[in-house]
What does this fold into?
Amino acid sequence: MTAPKTARQWGLHAGLLALWFLSSFGVVFFARDLQWVVASWPVGYWFAAQGSVLVFIGIVVIYAWVANRRDGPERGFDAAAYAAYTTTLHRRFALYVFCLLLFLLALAFAERAGLPKVWVAGIFLTATLMMYAVIGVYGRTAEASEYYVAGRRIPAVYNGMATAADWMSAASFISMAGGLYLQGFSGTGAQAGGLAYVLGWTGGFCLVALLVAPYLRRLRLYTVPDYFALRFGGRWPRIIAAAAAVLCSFTYVVAQIYGVGLITSRLTGVQFEIGILLGLGGVLVCSFLGGMRAVTWTQVTQYVVIILAFLIPVSWLAYKELGNPFAPFVYGEQLQKIAAIEKQLMDSPAEKQVIDEYARRARLFENKLMNVDAALLDDRQALRQQLRALGDKRADDEHAIALRRELAAMPKDAAAARETWTRAAAENWARAKPLGGMPPHTTPFAGDPSGTPEQVQEFETSRANFLALMFCLMVGTAGLPHLLTRYYTTPTVAEARSSVAWSLVFIALLYLSAPALAVLVKFEVIAHLVGQPFDSLPTWVAQWARDPSLLTVSDVNGDHILQFAELKMSADLIMLATPEIGGLPYVVSVLVAGGGLAAALSTADGLLLTIGNAVAHDMYFEGDSSKAQAMRRVMWSKFALLVVALVAAYVAAQRPAGILYLVSASFSLAGAAFVPVMVLGIFWKGATRAGAVAGMLTGLGVTVYYMAINLPAVRVALGLAGEGLWWGIQPVSAGVFGVAAGLVMAVLVSLFTSSGSSETAPPPQ
It folds into this structure.
């Protein structure tokens, strides 16, 4: 009887994994061939943006249903008491949603009645942060099981909602739609992106459901490093896992705190750095006082804010442009219109003038780089001569003030000048292309598989980068500690499986709408903004242009008309500016900013909790189970959380990189460090402690090395010329090499160090 049952278990896993692979990597690989249009939708684009996500949902739902029916009720589980508990929660949740909607309507009426915008923003920000703080205070605890895993009594639907809020970080809410706006289907030849984020961040949940979450939940652990200690024994597997958890979570949390500062400063008008500190207070109240118990219920409330903040503006835009608020179903019509306008822009003489000017500026910077010292001296002398020519009588003239600022901003020495001019030359060359360097929105991959050898090579590299990024995001999803810990909080293994399905359903509500938002905003910009005189541009352009890192407009060709290539919008801007672009009431702008803040705060909560627990529970106390030590672990976890939060806030204030890049890098790190060894430990009894240590160190080491060696500053410091890319893969996808290297090393070392008896792995379920 055992063999047929095991065969059925493996058959279910194999069949669903094969479907997952075909609907993701298979569809993407042949996306360039799936270009026929059905009901306004390019087939390849529809599958990558929506069809594959629906298949992923089907996979996790089918697996949960089949596996839960096979296992039956869990021994000792009181179903009647659980049903009564969930009914009470449903009532409270319904009351919360009703009160939130009533609050938003009251703010909208107050705005129409003349309440100043600053008051609308202040009331909303204060009310939501106070709500999160009240939950944190109410959920305060020093009990280990409550602090680490919320007492293991979170129902699947609410755990799925909390997981969705935890998952939909600032990258998902703020930057993903912006990345789709800028990168279209697949990004450029040098930078993959676009729909890789949608596919990667949803397809990874199939791996979580089939390969990881139920097996970890069965072991009744507190942290992910706990698994490595239990499965492999000894000190080093736990220590390495804890260090990897800190590294990938810290990289992730810096991006979230950056988003917190961006949104809080936008809502309140304070400086970016002050905004970071204001938002950080809300994070610390929940995670510091109540741990997972408070964080879970905070994230449930934040999910409602997040999803309303995303769906309201995208539905409004869809109704405005197409007469139908169900954006994911109807935005295909705009894809055809955008393709036609993009062709017109490529042929526009005015756009070509802008491109030629950017190319001229790029060549000018390259000429300066040929003799940096002389060029720097000539520039300084030229500015001083212009100032002397103005004379003392015009010392307060705006032109003179501008010249003084330009002189003060010049590089201080040749090294700084070389770095500045190299960056400026690259930026100008990037914009000296059709559509300002942006790819056509629906075209899969750069280059041309039927063109010149150079175009064929560009196509192959673009497709390889897309697949590599998608792979890293999927595998990283299955390895991120703050995500996996969420499934420790369910009362049973069956609820953990169901929770993964609910997580993906709640996440898909936003991820199916993000491509629609990008398309609708792009149509608004190229159809209604481009071509307008500079003195007639809407007020939101001037407001957002105060921060050049978010938006810049400049009359490059001097015709006083905005061309598409003269407009540069950051990925971090698109979602936040959508209400103003669509002409929505200001209360919706506040809601969107509040949703982005909730997304950043909810993820930061989970990440900081993971880091604090890794430092105190896994590195310092190493799982001592006495009651006194458990309380001390909780206190040390809180202290570590506070220190890490302050360090992350300092790093975020330096604006080290964009949100999407930082988050994507953390997925590469998590996938390479955890997933190969974790999956081997679950499904292969032959995996040994030495193999686990070697696999984690190799995977993490290769990933960190590849990212570091391709940093421009590192290459300059080491005197390395050219690119250090392997097969053209970008550094953000370094995990594709780390996962492969870690898997091979773990298998080889396990085979060489295996003995007659090995650690027992949980069997497939």
